[in-house]
C-alpha cells in the first residue's frame, strides 16, 4: 500500500507542476484550437503569458499571474499558453525564452512585448496604461479593431495565393515532383465541413509558407472536378487531408482542423525533413551575432589547435557536433566553433581559456548567461548536457562584464593539417667559438 501511495503522491506532484492554471482560475488557458476564436477575433485587450512547465521563472510567476487575472477580470483578458506543448503558437509569435509576456491590443497581428516588472501590481499598472492608450486611440478615430479586414475577421486571414489550387493537370508536377512536403486538402464545394475549414486552411497556408520558407506547402483539390487525382488516392469523404513527401506513399493527416493545429503539424513535418543546422566557424563578430541573435541558445565549441589534432581529429569533433545539431534541430539553436586561442576574449569570459580542450558552452545572448559542458565531448556527454538544458536544469553563469566579449576577425580553417612555423636559419660559420670555450666562467 505504501509504494502505491507514494506513486499516487508522485503523480499528483508532477501534475501540480505541469498544470499551472485550472478552470477555477481567472487565467484563460489558450491552445491552437481556441487561440484564434478567443484572442484574434476578440476586441478585448489581452495579456498573454507564454510559459514552459519546467521553467523556474514561470513557476515563480504563476501566483502573480493569477492575481493579475483576478484584478483585471472584466477589464482586460489574461491568458496563458503552454508554449512547450504548443510550439506552433510560440513560434508564430517569436517566443524564444520563458516566460514571455505579450500584449495583444488593437492590432492582434502585431502584439507588443511586455517589458515591465513581474509583480502583479506592475503587470496591472502596465495593462491599465495600455488600456488607456487604446481608449484614447478609439476616441481620436483610430481603429480599435483587431487589425483584420472584414474578410479576415471572418476567419480568412491568409493570402489566397499561398494556398495552391491543385488540379489533375498540375498535381504530379507541383506535388509529386517537388522536394517540398505538401499537405493537400481534397474538398467538395457543397460540403459544410469544407466551408468551415476553408479560412483555417488559407490562414495556415500563409503562416506555414512564411515560417518554413516554402519548404512545406498547403494545397487544395476540388475533388468534384478533378476526379482523376482524387480517385487515385481513394478519396471518399470530405474534407480529406493527406501528407505527401517526395518518394513516399501519402499518409492521412490525423490532427485537428484549426489553423493552429494545422500549423503545428506542418512545423513538425518541417523539422523532421529539415537538414541539420550548419556548424559555423566563428570568423567575425557578425557570424556570432547573425547565428545567435535569433536563437534561444547558441552552442559553441572551442576545439584544440590544429597542430594538436590534425585535420582528421578536428573533423571527428565537428562530426559529433553535426550529429547533435541534427538531433536537436527542432530547437532551432545556433551551432558554432572556434579554434583554441583564436577567440581568447570569448574563452576568458566563459572561463575556458588555456586548457580543457575540446570545450563547449551553451549561451543565451539575450540574458547574457551561459552553461558549460562538464562531461565528455562525445555524443553521449553532449546529449546529456543539452537534455538538461532543455528541461531547465543545469547550472548557469553570467558573462563577465555583463556583455558579449570582443570577437576577433580570423581566417577560416582551410580543412588541412596544420603546418609548424618555419624557423629562421642562422649561418654560424663565421663565428669563432674556440676562444670562448677556453675561458673560465665567472
Low-pLDDT windows of residues: 1-18, 144-157
Number of strands: 16
Structural class: alpha/beta
Strand content: 15-25%
N-to-C CA distance: 90 Å
Order of strands, widest sheet: 11-13-12-14-15-16
Helix percent reads: 25-40%
DSSP helical segment count: 15
Mean pLDDT: 83
Q: Please give the largest β-sheet.
A: 6 strands, mixed
Descriptive tags:
single chain, alpha/beta, six-stranded mixed beta sheet, 15 helices, flat, disordered N terminus
Explain how this protein is built:
This protein has 442 residues and is an alpha/beta fold. 38% of the residues lie in helices and 17% in strands. The strands form three sheets. The protein has a six-stranded mixed β-sheet, with helices on both faces. A five-stranded mixed β-sheet has the order 1-3-2-4-5. Strand 14 and strand 15 form a beta hairpin.
Summarize the structure.
The chain has helices at 2-18, 35-40, 56-71, 87-92, 120-139, 150-153, 171-176, 192-211, 227-232, 259-273, 285-292, 306-327, 344-350, 379-390, 434-437, and strands spanning 28-30, 46-51, 77-82, 100-104, 112-113, 163-166, 181-187, 216-222, 240-244, 251-252, 279-281, 298-303, 334-339, 359-364, 369-372, 397-398.
Describe the protein's topology:
Elements: H1 2-18, E1 28-30, H2 35-40, E2 46-51, H3 56-71, E3 77-82, H4 87-92, E4 100-104, E5 112-113, H5 120-139, H6 150-153, E6 163-166, H7 171-176, E7 181-187, H8 192-211, E8 216-222, H9 227-232, E9 240-244, E10 251-252, H10 259-273, E11 279-281, H11 285-292, E12 298-303, H12 306-327, E13 334-339, H13 344-350, E14 359-364, E15 369-372, H14 379-390, E16 397-398, H15 434-437
Parallel strand pairs: 1-3, 2-3, 6-8, 7-8, 11-13, 12-13
Antiparallel strand pairs: 2-4, 4-5, 7-9, 9-10, 12-14, 14-15, 15-16
Helix pairs in contact: 3-5, 8-10
Amino acid at each position: 500500500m505504501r509504494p502505491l501511495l507514494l506513486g499516487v503522491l508522485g503523480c499528483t506532484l508532477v501534475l501540480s507542476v505541469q498544470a499551472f492554471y485550472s478552470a477555477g482560475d481567472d487565467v484563460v488557458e489558450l491552445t491552437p484550437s481556441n487561440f484564434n476564436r478567443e484572442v484574434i477575433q476578440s476586441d478585448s485587450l489581452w495579456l498573454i503569458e507564454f510559459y514552459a512547465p519546467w521553467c523556474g521563472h514561470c513557476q515563480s510567476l504563476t501566483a502573480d499571474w493569477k492575481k493579475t487575472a483576478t484584478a483585471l477580470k472584466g477589464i482586460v483578458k489574461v491568458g496563458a499558453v503552454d508554449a512547450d506543448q504548443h510550439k506552433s503558437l510560440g513560434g508564430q509569435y517569436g517566443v524564444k525564452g520563458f516566460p514571455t509576456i505579450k500584449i495583444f491590443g488593437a492590432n492582434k497581428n502585431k502584439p507588443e512585448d511586455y517589458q515591465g516588472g513581474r509583480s502583479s501590481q506592475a503587470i496591472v499598472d502596465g495593462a491599465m496604461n495600455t488600456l488607456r492608450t487604446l481608449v484614447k486611440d478609439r476616441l481620436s478615430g483610430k481603429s480599435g479593431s483587431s487589425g483584420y479586414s472584414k474578410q479576415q475577421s471572418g476567419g480568412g486571414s491568409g493570402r489566397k495565393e499561398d494556398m495552391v489550387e491543385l488540379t489533375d493537370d498540375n498535381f504530379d508536377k507541383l506535388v509529386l515532383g517537388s522536394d517540398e512536403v505538401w499537405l493537400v486538402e481534397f474538398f467538395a464545394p457543397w460540403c459544410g465541413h469544407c466551408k468551415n475549414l476553408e479560412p483555417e486552411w488559407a490562414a495556415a497556408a500563409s503562416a506555414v509558407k512564411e515560417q518554413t520558407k516554402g519548404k512545406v506547402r498547403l494545397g487544395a483539390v476540388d475533388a468534384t472536378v478533378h476526379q482523376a487525382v482524387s480517385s487515385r488516392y481513394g478519396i471518399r469523404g470530405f474534407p480529406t487531408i493527406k501528407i505527401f513527401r517526395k518518394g513516399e506513399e501519402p499518409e492521412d493527416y490525423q490532427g485537428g482542423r484549426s489553423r493552429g493545429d494545422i500549423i503545428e503539424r506542418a512545423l513538425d513535418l518541417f523539422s523532421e525533413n529539415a537538414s541539420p543546422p550548419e556548424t559555423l566557424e566563428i570568423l567575425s563578430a557578425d557570424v556570432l551575432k547573425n547565428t545567435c541573435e535569433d536563437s534561444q541558445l547558441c552552442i559553441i565549441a572551442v576545439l584544440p589547435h590544429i597542430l594538436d589534432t590534425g585535420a582528421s581529429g578536428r573533423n571527428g569533433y565537428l562530426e559529433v557536433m553535426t550529429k547533435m545539431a541534427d538531433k536537436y534541430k527542432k530547437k532551432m539553436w545556433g551551432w558554432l566553433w572556434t579554434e583554441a586561442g583564436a577567440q581568447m576574449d570569448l574563452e576568458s569570459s566563459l572561463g575556458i581559456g588555456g586548457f580543457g580542450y575540446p570545450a563547449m558552452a551553451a549561451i543565451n545572448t539575450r540574458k547574457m548567461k551561459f552553461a558549460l559542458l562538464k562531461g565528455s565531448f562525445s555524443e553521449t556527454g553532449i546529449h546529456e548536457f543539452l537534455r538538461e538544458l532543455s528541461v531547465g536544469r543545469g547550472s548557469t553563469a553570467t558573462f563577465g562584464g555583463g556583455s558579449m566579449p570582443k570577437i576577433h576577425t580570423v581566417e577560416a580553417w582551410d580543412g588541412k593539417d596544420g603546418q609548424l612555423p618555419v624557423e629562421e636559419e642562422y649561418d654560424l660559420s663565421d663565428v669563432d667559438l674556440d676562444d670562448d670555450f677556453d675561458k673560465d666562467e665567472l
